[in-house]
């Protein structure tokens, strides 16, 4: 099961995205700022990092540059999450070493397609079977 590190300082956004990805079969680790992203990535070696592009402590671009400069984390794909319509943010994210960019609000099928591509998985939304409720 692929492990995704979600780096997001907004509790509601982080929790919602975590729940949605867990339902798609991913293991989730979280960090709330750029410094936490670097620390968690080094400790846990996630398969992919989703990096909010507006982070405190160590800003997102600096966190991405440090992750890509570190031999222990440089091969981890990073998808930056930017504000919709912020083309300059997307360009800065790619310049900092991010592998891809997606926009907020999150469109789950589109984001899953990017995650799957970055991980070399089939491009499809995973559907997990949930047994019917009740007896019988």
From TrEMBL:
Modification 4-aspartylphosphate occurs at: 52
Keyword Phosphoprotein carried by entry: yes
Keywords: Phosphoprotein
Gene3D superfamilies listed in its UniProt record: 3.40.50.2300
Keyword Phosphoprotein: yes
Domain (Response regulatory): residue spans on this chain: 3-119
Protein name stated in the entry: Response regulator
């Amino acid at each position: 099961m692929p492990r995704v590190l979600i780096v997001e300082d907004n509790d509601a956004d982080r929790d919602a995205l975590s729940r949605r990805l867990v339902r798609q079969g991913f293991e989730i680790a979280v960090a709330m700022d750029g410094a936490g992203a670097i620390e968690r990535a080094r400790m846990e070696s996630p398969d992919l990092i989703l990096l909010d592009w507006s982070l405190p402590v160590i800003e997102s671009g600096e966190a991405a540059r440090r992750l890509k400069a570190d031999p222990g984390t440089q091969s981890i794909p990073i998808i930056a999450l930017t504000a919709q319509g912020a083309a300059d943010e997307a360009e800065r994210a790619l310049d900092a070493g991010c592998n891809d960019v997606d926009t907020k609000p999150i469109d789950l099928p589109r984001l899953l397609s990017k995650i799957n591509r970055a991980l070399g998985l089939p491009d499809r939304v995973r559907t997990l079977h949930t047994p019917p409720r009740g007896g019988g």
